Amino acid sequence: MSLIESDVAPTPFIPGAASGLPSASPALDSSRSPWWQGAAIYQIYPRSFQDSNGDGVGDLPGIARRLHHVARLGVDAIWISPFFTSPMRDFGYDVADYCGIDPVFGTMADFDALVAHAHDLGLRVIIDQVYAHTSDLHLWFAESRSDRGNPRADWYVWHDPREDGTPPCNWQSVFGGPAWTWDGRRRQYYMHTFLKEQPQLNMHNPAVQDAVLQAARFWLERGVDGFRLDALNHAMHDPLLRDNPPAPADGRLRTRPFDFQLKTYSQSHPDMIGFVERLRAVCDEYGVIHTVAEIGGDHPQADRRAYTAGEHRLNSAYGFDFLYAPALTARFVAETLQRWELAPDENGGWPSWAFENHDAPRALSRWCAPEHRGIFARTKMALLMALRGNVILYQGEELGLLQDEIAFEQLQDPEAIANWPLTLSRDGARTPLPWEDLPLGGFTPVSPWLPLSAENLTRAVAIQESDPASLLHFTRKLLALRQARPVLRHGALEDLACDGELLSFLRVEGEERLLCLFNLSPEPLAPSPALQALAVQGDIVLAINGATPAALPPYGVLWVKAR
Description:
With 563 residues, this protein is of the alpha/beta class. It folds into 2 domains: 26-131 and 205-486, Alpha-Beta Barrel (TIM Barrel); 491-562, Immunoglobulin-like (Sandwich). Helix content is 26%, strand content 16%. It has helices at residues 60-73, 108-120, 139-144, 206-221, 272-284, 300-308, 330-340, 344-347, 363-367, 373-386, 414-418, 454-457, 461-465, 471-484, 486-489, 529-536; strands at residues 40-44, 77-80, 84-85, 97-101, 124-130, 158-159, 180-183, 188-191, 226-230, 290-294, 316-318, 350-354, 390-394, 492-499, 502-509, 512-519, 539-544, 557-562. The strands form 4 sheets. An 8-stranded parallel beta barrel has the order 1-2-5-9-10-11-12-13. The protein has a 5-stranded antiparallel β-sheet with strand order 14-15-16-18-17, sandwiched between helices. A 3-stranded antiparallel β-sheet has the order 6-8-7, with no helix packed on it. Helix 10 (373-386) runs parallel beside helix 14. The longest helix is centred in the middle third of the chain and has 16 residues, at 206-221. It is globular and about 75 Å long. The two termini are 25 Å apart.
């Protein structure tokens, strides 16, 4: 593997600068574009980042302790998964207090100190907001379920049963079984798209919208720089409660009742646009606040366009295209980019991309045979950094962590437990981050909430720090390259094509053109004569696995500044 940088060389880390780059670098030049446009964002799953108090669970002081590692990578921001007060039935995505810190993660003072420390390091802070549902232990739900006449009676989705006592419609929950649970207090069913302990908020109710927007203001007042909006297109339902139609046969194994339906009426209601605009207006009061929505479902492209259109809605959105893909092929990448990669002036939105996160199996385990993982990890990282839009790195992705195998008796993930053994556990991507060459990886001095595998312990931060050829060092170089080149942060993506397993496209910004070639197979490939001619005339910016304009070895990558 070789890396050639024609215009930039990585500089040592300097506290107070996100990556040691000069303050006049494109990443920090707000006069040119918003800070978040083209940003690299590092997702932190707090339970598994660093335990600071010896209870086996990561926490906010632990994040602060290890934040220099993130800053040295050269990213622009961190996204912290939920740390709010919660009974942890879905590990924080069941919120019991939108404005509280769960004691397992620390205190509000710890959060304030973390934000201040991140800002000192040049990192922005993005946090989750969960508007589709709360915990069933939230005080709002306790009042709502008490009777049908209380002030919050309509804050959740309640409905009478059918004449035969069955739920009001056929909607199914993600975690298995009907999306309706009977409540004896009100003698009605309440809706829950996920766990029965996650009752659905009635976001059609203006009072509910006001309440969650007030929670957003609470965190904006504390200095956060953006929101990642969880399951946003699940947050409004069809008020008529019409039955979802069956999903057509597609040959895939269906492991959950949820998979047997098209979610035509249980999500993606058009009235959500009005709330999106209200949220954007609140954020605009606080300056350049980044908003990025998680968009899943049957037709995520339509929701992405609607939620990010113009200057009065969200900044960005991402889907599950890469997160659940079983293989990374040139055709799949090209088709995915063609679906999402719209011209900036067509809808005003901005794409975000992630290959891994807390809900999806580790990409190296999904996409590559064991014997090729060393080089493929670099190829995958280079592809992510070359895409137009924002890029999201999940903790440990810079180390090349693999999906851990979790025994049934150690599972924590409610979906995996409910659908065992057909659903791959999300726990395998949530295991603690290995920091040091120690039995527990320096994450904790006691038994951790999830086990660390021996294989991932060999990829610890300290081990890779001492190896200049490691994926960690390579990731820093790629991020420095992306930060220093406006064509990678802001440029258009043009001439997208695939020829077998050879993927090619141009990044274009003003007069600069960057040709990007990727061999996504374990076999050598030769670019077409036209691509070779274009590459030969340019200056090589990046070469992986000995790639040249004439030949791309297995998983070879070539970036060329075209003349």
